[in-house]
Every structure is written in structure tokens, then in C-alpha cells.
Amino acid sequence: MTSFSQIKIITCGSVDDGKSTLVGRILAETNNIYSDQNDKLKIISKRYGTTKSSVDYALHMDGLQDEREQGITIDVAHKYIDYKNKRLVFCDSPGHNQYTKNVVTAASSCSIGVVLLDAAKGILEQTARHLAILDFAGIKHVIFAVNKIDSIKYNKKKFTKLKKKIQTLFSNYAFVSKFIIPISALNNENIVKKSQKILWYKGKNLLNQIIAIGSKDYISSTPYITVQHVHRPNNKTRHYMGIARGSSIKNKSEIFVFPSRLKSKVKNIFFDNKKQSSTTSNYPVCIETENELDITRGDIISLKKDAVETGNCFNASVVITSQDNLYSGRQYLIRIHNKETYATVTKIKKKVDFGSENSQNLKELLVNDIGEIEFDTNETIAFLPFGTAKELGAFVIIDIGNHNVIAAGKINFALRRSGNVFQSNLKINKKNRSHLIRQTPKCIWFTGISGSGKTTIGNALEQKLHSQRKLTYFLDADNLRLGINKDLGFSQNDRVENIRRVAEISKLMVDAGLIVIVAAISPFENERNFAKSLFDKKEFLEIFVNTPLSVCKIRDSKGLYKKSAKDKFMSKIGLGSNYEAPKKPDLIVSTERESSEQITDRILKNFLT
Amino acid sequence: MKKNNLLKDLESEAISIIRDGFSKSLNPVLMYSIGKDSSVLLHLAIKAFYPSPIPFPLLHIDTKWKFKEMYEFKEKIKKKINIKLITHINLDGLKKKIDPANNSSVHTDIMKTEALKQAIDKYKFDFIFGGARRDEEQSRSKERIVSVREKTHTWDPKNQRPELWSLFNFNKNQDQSFRIFPISNWTEKDVWDYILQENIDIVNLYFAKNRPTIIRNGSIFLVDDDRFLVHKKEKIVNRKVRFRTLGCYPLTAGTESTAVNIREIIEENKKIHFSERAGRLIDLDKINSMEVKKRDGYF
């Protein structure tokens, strides 16, 4: 018996190559535009239509006001068609470079890619970029639809020439199946029926080709459950919930938990409102184990003791999906299957070049870039390479400050060194050291724009602490730039690295038992949060020296503002212009209203007694 | 074993979204409108947490103009499923005594959108599950499964977050909230097929029955109580009608039908050339009326 199942298809390609017109046409030809929708479409077409006919089908897809007004697609439209005992889900995606992130969104949920191409214009930069994105997202079947074939007068020679170019482009990728079909979305040629104008073309029409590829089922025999949620119906019971993949896990089976590699036995299985004897593949289940284990969201349960790998250093491919660039050295949040953890990008290794940009600076990746990176995670994670199991190797990179999705990623492999770097267990620790000198170690971090008075207050504070016989050290970011940070400039990337080093050094000094005072502009919220994350609770104090830019300019203690007014380069380093004020500092001080003495007293009274 | 792989896929996706969202939420709620989509969503939520009960309350925004049978059904469900059901009414709005038949968009803005925003603010809900589907309407076809709403509950369709694989990003600023749509990828047909497969209880208004109706602007409306102002030229006639969607009764048109069970509804729907929401007057105010409402905070 053939079962009713769904096929998800992304339509992509450059601007004006006819993507929305194509999907609109398919909907119309398969009777999936209702009469009331058609009436509405006629009214909209009159106002926004760009075709000669009374109905512009593209406007059925471009459902947002802005899209109609600008005549472009901004975000993905999802359309559902039942055809020949299949559910076809079309994800119509935008062509403008600016909205590439939405193409990645569509591609990640689809199994077939239809790349449209204007027969007269041929392969454009966006065509190549979209093909690379389909490959990136793990799509295995690609159809090139050579649209507007009427504009080259259904000419076989011209089509064959274009076909060769497409085949060359295809040769860069390892798609499982590849097709090239001449069509006209506007004139309904080769979409749902064989075209009488392109008799030289012997292959299938577009929709039949899609049906023929079909929905290739998820193939994985390895049984595993990614733990999505741990439910506690009462104090004694824990229910582990997640989707079961691969062959079934039965009651009483011995199971392994990753990354901890703990063992237990299955006690109960529930799903479909019943107690069950075994799991069913690709279906959400709930299981209970015999002995209570520490299993949390993001763990993986399997029958096999080597079902998945574990690691914390990775090589990965990424596509940047945000205007915020991806910086080497910066800390981010990543989500891989159900696991969320902090991760630091340690290296940007490669950037795919589509011919438009020629930047070879690999300290950052910009929006729409496809590249290769290395990153470390704070916690050990269970995974499989994306090529082996999509679900266990795909991840997203999230900005810690504004929660934007910075990039889509897929793990290529774990780096070997992750197994080789061990943290040595030392016998004498922070507690022993601080006990010896009878003080509580702290990191007092002053942030604020240049000239705000960080160094002045820091000096006053250190003098006071010294007089109270406290062991201190003052790390002034300017001074560090003369030594350990002298290889760093003022690019955004270098500023990120600068703060990372200052933070790591402070951490070592606090570990040594000292009270560390840091004076650093530290303009970015993300890096200050990173610094904070290195310390224990209450060990780190963020003090915002909030002096207005106008006052700092008048003071201009280092002469930087005067210099920046004259020097174009200096103005770029952002003397206050790109400073992100702390959202929740532990203390805000103002050198306008208070003396250093008063501020110092306030700090001592609030935090150091 | 189920034969319909599509329904199994859709059910699996929806349950997974509900569990995923719940796991990251602080104060979640499930929007319950009493309609068929809500009934399906409720059924999925029960399955998601079995053998435990649903760990969050239901929220019903009452406009005071729903069909009588909907209120009866709500009480029935409350008794049947042991769950907390919060009903919120915009009491200030009620004082304005807006007649939905004459002021459909004002009524919807105040009694639905505004009321929903009030309820979310009042109870500080952060993750709000709803039964909207992408096949219902054009702006909904563009929306993410996890839709970010700003402090004022507004939606920015031009700047939606990427949503990659099923790796939903449930991180947000304190004053933002999420609208989560687990049945985004279901069609009207899927909803009916699932109701049939799972034997889900729904309001009787979905089945054809002789009901007192009038015809206005070519649409059939149920005269559900005496607040409905019947014009002189309009005649109340008993017609065998059913409803494809449910909302406020003066704004929700029915269709003449003979379908008295789910199978018959599914068969009849195949032949109908009107979309599901054709009978919803609130969609027809302006060309982009749904998008405008959604930007403002509507579901």
C-alpha cells in the first residue's frame, strides 16, 4: 500500500527569475487557489500586478504588504498542495541577497531544491550562492528550472549551451540527483503537463519530476533518543521525552547516556496516550529508567555504547544569517540538537568566494558568507557529523547579547586535540591561597568610554585597598597594549580579542587570590558578559563609569578626541560612538558628580566589606 | 500502526515543538478558542506530556459574542479534562458596547487583539502556544513557527529570525514573548483527517443541522440570540448549515450543507471552491487585514 507522505521543496534563484510566479502557477494549475482567493487576487493584481494578465500569481505568494509594494519576496511563503497521492510543501524563498538568511531557513526544512534561472540571463551570482546553500543545508536532489524559455524562443541550441554551464556548476557538489528542465512559468510550459513547444525536451515536466524523486525517508538504523525535556511528575519519577530514531528501543533494554556514558535499563515507555512495549521510529516518546540517572535536556540515549561521538573542539561549516558578523575569538551560545552551551570561535579557516567580494581578512565572516570555522564548547557535547546524521550535526550560533541567530552550522568533524587537552587537577586551589593572605579574591571591572575616568578611580581604589593591607593588582588595558596585547590593533575583531585576553589574565590573578582591578573601555556587551562568565558568582563586579561623551571630549586626557577629529582612521576606532552601555551593571558611577574618594568609598562599602 | 504517514509526521512535529518550547519556558499558556484547531492542539498537548497532565493552563479570550454552543462546549471540556482554564474578557471594551455586526474591525481590535494583549501582560505569559496554520491566510503563510513578539506584542514580518532545521531559538529579551504555532504546517484537510483518526470531540456547529439563519450580503448568518439585529427586509429561515471556522457569530458565515459527520465533512470540503476563511468577515476589511492585525498583536 502506498502511503500518503510529504515532500518539501524549496524554490530559489536570483531576483526576478520567476520563483513566486512558478509556485503561484503550480497552485493555480492544481486547483489550489479558491475562488474567493482568486477574486481577492484580481483586486490586488489591479493595484500591484506586473503582468499583462488579470491575475498576477506571484502576488498570491508575496502576501506581505511590503512585498507587494516593492514587488519582491522578502520572506518564505509556505504553500501546500495535494497532488498524485503526495503532499507537496513549497517553500518559496526570496532572491535578493539581503534576504539570503530566509533562503537558508527554507532550505533547512526541505529535501528537494528547485533553482530557477532566467534563460536569457543565465547563471548569476545569486544562482551560484543559492546552489551552495542547498548543498550546505543537506539537500540531495536539485532541479534547475530554466525559466522564461519563451524569451529564447524555445531554442534548443541556446538551452544546450546553458545546460553545459549548469553542469559545470553542478560538478562542484555531490548531489544525489540532478535535473535540468526548460520551463515557462508564465505561459505554463512544462510545469504540470508536457510542453508542445519544447518537443525536443524528452524528460519529465517539473511536477512529475518532483513526484518521481519523492520523499526519501530518514535513513538511520542506529536507535537513539535526543532528550528534549525531562519531566518530573513527582519527586521520585523522571520522564525523559524526545523523538525516537532508528530501530526500536524495548522495555528492559540496557541503555547508554551521552555524553556521560552512564548506563541504565528502560523501565517504562509511553506514547500515544498509552503504556507501550517499545518505541516507534520518528515518533515522540517518553521513557522512564530503572535507576535514577542525571539525564538532562540535550543528552542522547541509545542502545549502543558507541552510538554517538563526544567532544568539545570542532571543525564546522557555517552560513552567516545576521548583519552581526561572526568574529573569531568571540563567545556565543550554540544549540545543537537539544543541547545549548557556550562556545568560542577559535579560528575562521575559509570563506567561499562567489566572485563579488575579495576580502581575504579571515578574522570575521560577514552576512551571507559561507565559510569554515573551528570552535570550542564550554561543555562536552554528544554529536555525530552532519554528513552521518543531519539531526545530530546541525547547529545554530546565537548572539549572547541580542539573541539573534548569527549563523547556521554543521559539524564536519571533531578536532583530535579535544581528546588530548586535559585540565590538570592541582592540589593547591584558590581557596587555599586566599585563606593564606586572608582576603576574598575579586575582579573589579571598570567599563566606560575613553576619558571617562576609569584609570583615575582604579588608582584611587587600589591605593585604598593597599593601605588596608590587601594584595591587589591593577590591569590597565592601555598598559597591556604595550606588552601582551601589542600585536592587536583597533579593528572590531582585535578589540574582541583584547578583552578576551584581559579577562583570562584577570581570571588567573583572581585564582591566585588577588583583588584585581581592570580598567578597559570594553565597548561590547558580549565581551563583558564573556568576562563575567569566567568568574564565580559575586566574584566579578561590573562598574560602569558613566561620564557623558561631551565631558570626556573636553577632558581629552590622552588627546585622542582631538586626534580623531583630524584623523580618519582614528575616528573609526569609536571613541564612544559604538560603545554599548551595560544593561545591568553592579554599580554606576559618575565622575562629574562624585570625587574619586567618594566613589572608592561607595565601592568598598557595597562590595568589599 | 497508522497508515497515514503524513499525519504521523505532522503529529510528531507538533508534539516535539510543544515539548521543546515548554522545556525553555517560564510561564507558558495554550490559547484555546474552542474551535477545531484549538481542539487538535489541546489533544496534541495531552499526548505530549502523557502520562502526566498538561503542565500549563489554557487561555480563552472571550468576546462575549461567541456562539452559544461554543460556551456550552467550553464547560463540557473543562469538566472532562482536569485543567486550569483562564477566561479573559476586556472589561473596559465591554463597556463600549460595540456591535460586531456594524463595527467588525473595531470589535476585533478591542475584544480580541487588545484583550489578548491584556491577558498576556496580566499573567506575564512568556511562551504562548496557538493553533494558527500557514495555509489559512497569506500573511500566516509567511510566519515562523516560533514568532517573536516585542514588548507591545507587535510582529515585524520584515525582520523575522532565521529558523533553521528544527533548532528553534528560544532565547529572548525579558520583555519579548514567543507565539508558538505547533500546527503551522497542517492544512484544513489534515486537521479534519486527524480529528477523524483520533476521534477528537468538537463543537456541534461544525456539523450540518437546521438552524435559524438570515442572508446578509450573500452570506448566511446564524441568529444565535436576540442581540443580533435582524433588518426589516431580512427573514429568519431555518436552513441546514454548518460552519467551517468559528468566531464571533455575527462575523462568521456558515455554509449550506448536508454533512453530519466528519467523513461527510471531508468529502464535502473536497468539492467546495471557497477557502476556509472566506466566511470570516474580519479577514475581509482590507486587503492586508490579517497582516495588519497580526502586526498589532493578533494571533
Radius of gyration of CA atoms of chain A, rounded to a whole number: 30 Å
Low-confidence stretches of chain A: none
By CATH, the superfamily of the largest domain in chain A comes out as P-loop containing nucleotide triphosphate hydrolases
Compute the number of helices of chain B.
8
Major beta sheet summary of chain A: 6 strands, mixed
Strand order of the largest sheet of chain B: 3-2-1-4-6-5
CATH class of the largest domain in chain A: Alpha Beta
The counted number of beta strands of chain B is 10
| Mean model confidence by pLDDT of chain A | 88
Q: Roughly how many Å apart are the termini of chain A?
A: 77 Å
Gross morphology of chain A: globular
CATH topology of the largest domain in chain B: Rossmann fold
Structural class of chain B: alpha/beta
End-to-end separation of chain B: 35 Å
Helix/strand/pairing category of chain A = alpha/beta
CATH level 4 superfamily of the largest domain in chain B: HUPs
Portion of residues in beta strands of chain A equals: 25-35%
Count of structural domains of chain B = 2
**What's the tally of helices of chain A?**
19
